[in-house]
């Protein structure tokens, strides 16, 4: 199958410098885009059915079309790459940034051009120090080679691009939380409307886009939307970086056609479960997605099919649970993360997730009460989408609500036997 | 108007609101926390959830937050929907998880919005069995108490403090369920509006620390509608008493004046009422010392003094009510009545009154100030002399930027979205003062200059607006350019405002302000001219009339008068000590009526105990020209009563014919109203004492007031009859009409299920709008239809630095410059010590640093004062804090010599 994003990744763990990147065909996308109009670039991306790879899966071209363009548009306009990869279980953007930083930069230049942005930021998770180092170097190289700055390649288009390291916290990965953090405020999210396309960074039109999504843009420009659609096995265009972590034989990342089944990723590429362990369930798209179990292994990993099965594809990096791992502990660990990362803005999230964590801790320690399962289910309903201010809490309760559905017996045993039966 | 469907009916509501405001305005009991009428909606707490339906066929619906949902034609919601009801109870459950069981010991109990909303949602049993998170509390100063365990993370405090007030030393720290609202380290909160946190905070995290010294539950207070006496803005307050001491002052909503907020001077300055320095009985000088004597004796002796005596004069006071001033005027006769302001202040206040009466500019209410879209401040340090106006000016710079967000279709109540889109943009605000002000951070430009130069800038602006206004000669190019910039900004605005006042004792500055306002009016603009007034009734007194202080002193000196009445006034604050001492020597009979044993009172022959605002009824006229009635809160102990009552008694004893028919407040209000045409409206400031609703009076005490029968049991086991109140429709009782009275008679805000200040919602027909029936107070001054005004002429010379002298100008402090509030211990603690302010260059010239001592000669007395180096103070100008440094009555500005000590 044709690889797009990962075809030039050096096998030794180093990064492609600008020369190597250009030799591999890099920055041809920029050259081509600059000869098109911004509207034409948006149209091409729209037709490609590229959907956001940050977890929400919103159609990218459509998202860009809401940015006011033309001579009456407010300026400066901004493009932000969401490189704050903090969804537990997700490490795909890290691979792209560490090994092909120029791929991100090129994608960003094309996207920025399409929305007539003046300034671009890479909002990078502060812990990704290797990515930071390599992106800094790549940005310097791009500037030196007239791919950034004033009058890019003589086109008359100007673009500043900066690397910003986040001070920390999961909420900075939420689109509007990212914008607030970038402005120096507390990383609480914002309501929409108004949408960032209208009032985003510093109140100006802004697009926030995931790293993997941006890395696809110049390929689409180079090879056309039909080509992009042809790579996929589903209605959503392109390839996808899928990952697997947990006790599989070969945890890792693989670029595969969009719509590859879970079974193929798990058994062919990740090698199936380790010796002596059996598959129990997985979170298909990172920690904030619902469990899928044995019966779902033939579900295609794309935005629509996974949703039909009762979960979300999210980031496409699966966390696999084996049959010797306590589901209660597994979920408690996740809820500990989410409770810790609650930004503290809305009541159901900051009160409910902490309560859930405490109950799970008690249950794991054999101090659970019978009513706790009802209370945990209540918290899942309490934190439903719309009840909370943003999607953190609804995501946080997805592993919990699905664990209660598929692994209820394990929870009940902890409570009845007053200890973890896995010990 | 838009039609919305709520549960089972259609309603017509204003479409510019959020759904929450619309529902509250309709009288629905929809709970909320993070929304506040002055702060808008942010959608944090999730308490106001309702079920919204797409149309009449949608039976499922979805939960939405009412505060974040616009009112649109055809909106369908259900408040009673079981899912919504359960969810709202669930939010309370979430808040209660970490909330301590403090109610019995929490100051907020009985007036707590969290209590009210908890009961409203029906949540009761706690399912959470784990530990509650706790915090260490901070010392935040003498005014506010901090108890963070009670916090429900509604974020109102930081939104108010940072966004509304512009403060930066109250922040949110940490996240999740352990958010901490406080300072980076313990210390006094810097903002002079921090006290409003007591009412902004829906729980007991921030509470009034001064009340703790004499804590009383709200339901146990006897309260009355009052007016703050600590500056000329005249904010409406609600004062509360128990056991004969004044316990607290809280905000009383007045949609045209203070709205939802007070300043800290007004909120915490009340302790002078309980001071040990209070005069509680009549005193007479016996054997050279003041000794108490029975009031009947005192009145008798006064009668004897007045018999056949035609050499009596009266000195009134700008801090006394219109009625008290009028009664004194009636006793002595209008040509023997002196207004008791310092000469300079008297001249300026009269000038400002004249300018407003002549027109054409309008004297705006505070609400109108807030809505002004371009402002020029000439000479006034508003934060310190009229603090509540400063808070309104801070909101005014949002007006023009909000026109942009209106175009972006962002509703004005969607607070964070509006602020995000606006960023740092601000409407025009120009401030010309000698020293830095706390509004400088939002000013378009500031101009630091001596008073004459400030005036010249103002005149230049007027000339730039209208070439027929006088030219200012020899103006520097920078000042010309600034004047041009200001003129453009004012000209392009829809509701331009000029703010000036008497603070710098400069007639030229007042003239300049008038010229600017008049030039704008010529353009056809709805120009506003706001003059600050130094004291609560300065403008009222000026409208009543009266000679100036020098004339009073002269009358005594030249033997025309030998009997002087002084009404609620310490003359040593108004004139040079030498002049006052001379008066004291020359006068034969000095009779003082006041609350406190002031330096003047302590030298009197007779002292009569005057009721403070809390113990009196009367009328004040604020700087807007709004006459407002204040009502007695309680019957004071011993012989204290209104000054005007004393004067009536004395007049009656002396056989004064005019006083024969004066017995109660209404008699005096009518007589005062007839004293001058401009005062006629004061009778409408509140209903007369005969006013009843279904035959019942308005109770000063809530229904749940306790202890009535036990309170006096140690004196007499039989419960006494409640005192009569012949002066007002209010009763010293909990019995009376339980519903909403006219706004000027509302003693406190309470409604069934709404024990906290949020109950104000129930008294408005539209949230954030006027109180039902209109806001309290009557505007006395409207610009006339035809106005024959002339431009004032400009000062010819610019300020010139002198080699060996400095121009001393007055500087003001919200804590310390005002006489009465400075008596409150907490305020006194925050007041600065004496200092003289010097510019950086002047400090260098004198070779002094911060804190070094310099000598200043004032009226013959040499004072040694520490230097405070102030950036921005113009060279050649020094500043002296009013009320803090004894001025010996020296009239500033004054050229003085300064030398290093």
User: What order do the strands of the largest sheet of chain A run in, or round the barrel if closed?
Assistant: 3-2-1-4
Structural category of chain A: alpha/beta
Instruction: State mean pLDDT of chain B (0 to 100 scale).
Output: 96
User: Rg of chain B from C-alpha positions?
Assistant: 28 Å
Question: How much strand of chain A?
Answer: 5-15%
What is the distance, rounded to the nearest whole angstrom, between the alpha carbons of the first and last residues of chain A? 44 Å
Distance between the termini of chain B: 71 Å
Topology record:
The complex is a heterodimer of chains A (423) and B (901).
Chain A: H1 18-23, H2 28-35, H3 38-47, H4 60-65, E1 78-83, H5 92-99, H6 101-114, E2 119-124, H7 129-144, E3 160-165, H8 175-182, E4 206-210, H9 211-223, H10 225-230, E5 239-246, E6 252-257, H11 262-269, E7 279-283, H12 303-308, E8 317-322, H13 327-341, H14 347-364, H15 371-382, H16 392-406, H17 408-417
Parallel strand pairs in A: 1-2, 1-4, 2-3, 5-8
Antiparallel strand pairs in A: 5-6, 7-8
Helix pairs in contact in A: 2-6, 2-9, 3-6, 5-6, 5-7, 6-9, 13-14, 13-16, 14-15, 15-16
Chain B: E1 2-6, E2 9-13, H1 19-25, E3 49-53, E4 62-65, E5 75-78, H2 82-96, H3 113-121, E6 144-146, H4 156-164, E7 171-173, E8 180-182, H5 197-200, E9 206-208, H6 209-212, E10 222-227, E11 236-242, E12 245-251, H7 264-268, E13 283-286, E14 289-292, H8 295-306, E15 312-315, H9 322-332, E16 337-338, H10 343-358, H11 366-370, E17 374-378, H12 382-385, H13 387-396, H14 399-407, H15 415-422, E18 429-433, E19 445-448, H16 451-465, H17 477-492, E20 496-500, H18 507-522, E21 528-531, H19 538-544, H20 549-557, E22 563-567, H21 577-586, E23 589-594, E24 606-609, E25 618-621, E26 626-630, H22 643-653, H23 665-673, E27 698-699, E28 730-731, E29 778-779, E30 805-811, H24 825-830, E31 836-838, H25 840-846, E32 853-858, E33 861-869, E34 877-881, E35 894-900
Parallel strand pairs in B: 1-5, 15-16, 15-22, 17-18, 17-20, 18-19, 20-21, 22-23, 23-24, 27-28, 30-34, 31-33
Antiparallel strand pairs in B: 1-2, 3-4, 3-5, 6-9, 7-8, 10-11, 11-12, 13-14, 13-24, 25-26, 26-29, 30-35, 32-33, 32-35
Helix pairs in contact in B: 8-22, 9-22, 9-23, 10-19, 16-17, 16-18
């Amino acid at each position: 199958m044709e690889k797009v994003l990962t075809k030039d990744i050096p096998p030794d763990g180093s990064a492609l410098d600008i020369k190597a990147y250009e030799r591999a065909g890099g920055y041809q996308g920029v050259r081509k885009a600059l000869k098109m109009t911004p509207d034409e670039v948006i149209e091409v991306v729209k037709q490609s059915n590229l959907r956001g790879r940050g977890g929400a899966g919103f159609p990218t071209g459509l998202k860009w079309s809401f940015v006011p363009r033309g001579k009456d548009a407010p300026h400066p306009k901004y493009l932000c790459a969401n490189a704050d990869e903090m969804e537990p279980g997700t490490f795909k953007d890290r691979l792209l940034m560490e090994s092909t930083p120029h791929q991100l930069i090129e994608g960003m230049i094309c996207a920025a051009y399409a929305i007539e942005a003046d300034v671009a930021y890479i909002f990078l998770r502060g812990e990704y120090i290797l990515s930071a180092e390599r992106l800094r170097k790549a940005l310097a190289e791009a500037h030196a080679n007239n791919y950034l700055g004033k009058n890019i390649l003589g086109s008359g288009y100007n673009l500043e691009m900066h690397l910003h390291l986040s001070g920390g916290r999961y909420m900075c990965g939420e689109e509007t939380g990212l914008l607030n953090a970038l402005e120096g405020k507390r990383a609480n999210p914002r309501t929409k409307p108004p949408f960032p396309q209208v009032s985003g960074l510093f109140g100006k039109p802004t697009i926030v886009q995931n790293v993997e999504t941006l890395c696809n843009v110049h390929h689409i420009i180079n090879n056309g939307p039909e080509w992009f659609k042809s790579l996929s096995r589903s209605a959503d265009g392109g390839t996808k970086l899928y990952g697997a972590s947990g006790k599989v034989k070969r945890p890792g990342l693989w670029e595969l056609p969009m719509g590859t089944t879970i079974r193929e990723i798990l058994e062919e590429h990740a090698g199936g479960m380790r010796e002596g362990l059996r598959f129990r369930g997985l979170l298909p798209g990172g920690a904030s997605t619902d469990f899928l179990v044995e019966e779902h292994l033939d579900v295609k990993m794309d935005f629509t099919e996974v949703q039909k099965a009762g979960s979300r594809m999210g980031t496409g990096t699966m966390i696999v649970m084996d049959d010797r791992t306590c589901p209660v502990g597994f979920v408690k660990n996740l809820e500990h993360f989410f409770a810790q990362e609650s930004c503290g803005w809305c009541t159901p999230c900051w009160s409910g997730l902490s309560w859930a964590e405490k109950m799970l801790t008690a249950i794991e320690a054999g101090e659970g009460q019978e009513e706790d399962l009802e209370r945990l289910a209540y918290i899942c309903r309490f934190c439903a989408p719309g009840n909370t201010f943003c999607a953190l809490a609804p995501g946080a309760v997805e592993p919990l609500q699905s664990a209660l559905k598929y692994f209820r017996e394990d929870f009940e045993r902890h409570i009845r036997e007053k200890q973890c039966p896995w010990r | 108007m838009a039609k919305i469907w709520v549960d089972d009916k259609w309603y017509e509501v204003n479409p510019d609101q959020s759904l929450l405001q619309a529902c509250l305005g309709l009288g629905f009991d929809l709970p909320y926390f993070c929304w506040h009428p002055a702060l808008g909606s942010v959608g944090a707490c999730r308490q106001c959830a309702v079920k919204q339906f797409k149309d009449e066929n949608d039976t499922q619906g979805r939960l939405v937050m009412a505060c974040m949902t616009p009112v649109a034609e055809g909106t369908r919601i259900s408040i009673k929907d079981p899912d919504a009801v359960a969810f709202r109870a669930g939010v309370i459950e979430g808040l209660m998880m970490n909330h301590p069981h403090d109610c019995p010991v929490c100051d907020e109990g009985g007036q707590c919005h969290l209590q009210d909303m908890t009961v409203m949602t029906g949540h009761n049993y706690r399912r959470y069995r784990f530990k509650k998170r706790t915090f260490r509390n901070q010392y935040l100063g003498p005014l506010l108490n901090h108890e963070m365990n009670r916090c429900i993370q509604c974020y109102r405090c930081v939104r108010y403090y940072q966004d509304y007030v512009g403060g930066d030393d109250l922040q949110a720290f940490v996240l999740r369920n352990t958010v901490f609202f406080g300072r980076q380290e313990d210390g006094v909160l810097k903002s002079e509006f921090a006290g409003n946190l007591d009412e902004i905070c829906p729980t007991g995290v921030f509470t009034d620390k001064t009340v703790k010294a004499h804590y009383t539950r709200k339901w146990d207070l006897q309260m009355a509608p009052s007016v703050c006496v600590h500056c000329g803005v005249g904010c409406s307050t609600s004062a509360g008493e128990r056991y004969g001491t004044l316990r607290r002052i809280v905000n009383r909503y007045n949609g045209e004046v203070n709205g939802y907020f007070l300043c800290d001077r007004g909120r915490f300055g009340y302790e002078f009422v309980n001071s040990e320095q209070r005069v509680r009985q009549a005193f007479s000088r016996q054997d050279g010392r003041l000794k108490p004597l029975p009031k009947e004796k005192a009145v008798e002796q006064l009668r004897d003094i007045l018999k056949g005596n035609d050499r009596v004069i009266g000195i009134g006071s700008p801090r006394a009510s219109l009625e008290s001033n009028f009664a004194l005027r009636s006793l002595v006769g209008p040509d023997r009545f002196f207004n008791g302001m310092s000469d300079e202040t008297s001249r300026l206040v009269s000038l400002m009154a004249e300018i407003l009466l002549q027109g054409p500019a309008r004297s705006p209410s505070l609400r109108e100030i807030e809505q002004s879209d371009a402002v020029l401040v000439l000479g006034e340090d508003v934060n310190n002399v009229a603090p509540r106006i400063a808070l309104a000016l801070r909101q005014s710079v949002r007006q023009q930027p909000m026109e942009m967000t209106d175009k972006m279709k962002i509703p004005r109540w969607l607070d964070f979205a509006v602020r995000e889109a606006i960023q740092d943009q601000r409407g025009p605000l120009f401030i010309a003062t000698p020293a830095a002000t706390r509004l400088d951070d939002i000013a378009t430009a500031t101009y630091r200059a001596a008073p004459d130069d400030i005036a010249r800038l103002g005149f230049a602006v007027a000339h730039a607006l209208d070439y027929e206004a006088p030219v200012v000669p020899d103006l520097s190019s920078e000042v010309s350019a600034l004047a041009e910039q200001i003129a453009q900004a004012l000209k392009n605005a829809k509701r331009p405002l000029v703010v000036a006042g008497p603070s710098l004792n400069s007639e030229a500055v007042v003239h300049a302000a008038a010229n600017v306002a008049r030039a704008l009016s010529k353009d056809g603009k709805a120009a506003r001219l706001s003059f600050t007034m130094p004291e609560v009734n300065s403008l009222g007194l000026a409208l009543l009339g009266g000679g100036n202080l020098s004339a009073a002193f002269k009358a005594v000196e030249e033997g025309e008068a030998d009997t002087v009445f002084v009404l609620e006034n310490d003359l040593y604050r108004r004139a040079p000590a030498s002049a006052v001492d001379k008066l004291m020597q020359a006068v034969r009979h000095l009779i003082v009526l006041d609350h406190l044993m002031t330096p003047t009172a302590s030298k009197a022959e007779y002292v009569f105990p005057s009721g403070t605002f809390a113990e009196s009824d009367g009328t004040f006229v604020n700087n807007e020209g709004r006459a407002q009635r204040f009502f007695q809160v309680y019957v004071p102990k011993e012989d204290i009563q209104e000054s005007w009552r004393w004067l009536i008694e004395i007049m009656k004893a002396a056989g004064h014919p005019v006083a024969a028919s004066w017995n109660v407040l209404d008699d005096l209000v009518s007589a005062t109203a007839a004293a001058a045409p401009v005062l006629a409206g004061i009778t409408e400031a509140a209903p007369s004492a005969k006013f009843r609703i279904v035959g019942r009076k308005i109770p000063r005490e809530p229904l749940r007031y306790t202890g009535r029968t036990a309170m006096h049991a140690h004196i007499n086991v039989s419960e006494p009859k409640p005192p009569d109140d012949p002066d007002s429709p209010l009763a010293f009782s909990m019995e009376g009409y339980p519903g909403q009275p006219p706004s000027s008679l509302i003693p406190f805000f309470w409604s069934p299920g709404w024990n906290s200040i949020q109950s104000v919602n129930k008294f408005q027909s539209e949230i954030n709008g006027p109180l039902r029936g209109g806001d309290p107070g009557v505007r006395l001054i409207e610009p006339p239809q035809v106005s024959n005004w002339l431009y004032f002429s400009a000062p010819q010379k610019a300020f010139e630095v002198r080699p060996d002298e400095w121009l001393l100008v007055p500087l003001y402090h919200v804590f310390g410059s005002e006489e009465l509030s400075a008596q409150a211990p907490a305020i006194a603690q925050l007041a600065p010590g004496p200092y003289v302010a010097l510019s950086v260059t002047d400090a260098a010239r004198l070779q002094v640093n911060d804190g070094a001592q310099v000598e200043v000669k004032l009226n013959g007395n040499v004072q040694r004062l520490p230097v405070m180096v102030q950036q921005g103070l113009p060279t050649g100008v020094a500043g002296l804090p009013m009320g803090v440094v004894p001025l010996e009555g020296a009239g500033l500005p004054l050229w003085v010599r300064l030398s290093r000590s």
